[in-house]
Amino acid sequence: KQEVTQIPAALSVPEGENLVLNCSFTDSAIYNLQWFRQDPGKGLTSLLLIQSSQREQTSGRLNASLDKSSGRSTLYIAASQPGDSATYLCAVEGMSGSEKLVFGKGTKLTVNP
Amino acid sequence: NAGVTQTPKFRILKIGQSMTLQCAQDMNHNYMYWYRQDPGMGLKLIYYSVGAGITDKGEVPNGYNVSRSTTEDFPLRLELAAPSQTSVYFCASSSLDVAGDTDTQYFGPGTRLTVL
Fold first, then answer.
1. Rounded CA separation B48/B16 (Å)
2. Using one digit for the tens of pLDDT, what is the confidence trace for A36-58?
3. Number of helices and strands (H, E) in chain A?
4. Which residues of A touch B33 (CB under 8 A)?
């Protein structure tokens, strides 16, 4: 059964710092890996999707990498801003029918002005 | 486009009552999903559908039922509500990208359900 782990569970940084969020998964047989952002009391917003054949994706100040063989992904946020404060969720789409998306518990990021 | 819409936003049920959570999308997506999110936890898949008339179980389907009679709508039915079903429920939809791979999922704002 696929398990997704995110470390750290919470992170507090000063504004302007570059930071890395980590995600690991136990079964490397995946279709894709996605990073989402969730603001308090809101739904999820997709940030980046990396297909299993890709190594990384970039969007603005965000860069996500995927190392399928080691079961790891990182989300790099450059020049963090207070508006980046949110919970970041990693999810993998597995190849079995019930594992459409398996989520980690998230990393709660606080960027202090 | 409204995207993915969910109703109601909040609901309190008594044990044993039943209700239907509504979900609709206007993006003509074939794939639709229901998740639940418990406090401090990630999302868990309840049911999903790959098209009208086709549904399948996810990781935590017990106590729930779904139907998909149209591409747009994917209601989730709770029969005999239990306190363990207190959670936030999210509906999502997706399609395939130009390469035929699963594309990103778009989420609704969620329904916060409390069972007392």
1. 25
2. 999 988 889 999 999 888 999 99
3. 0, 11
4. 100-101
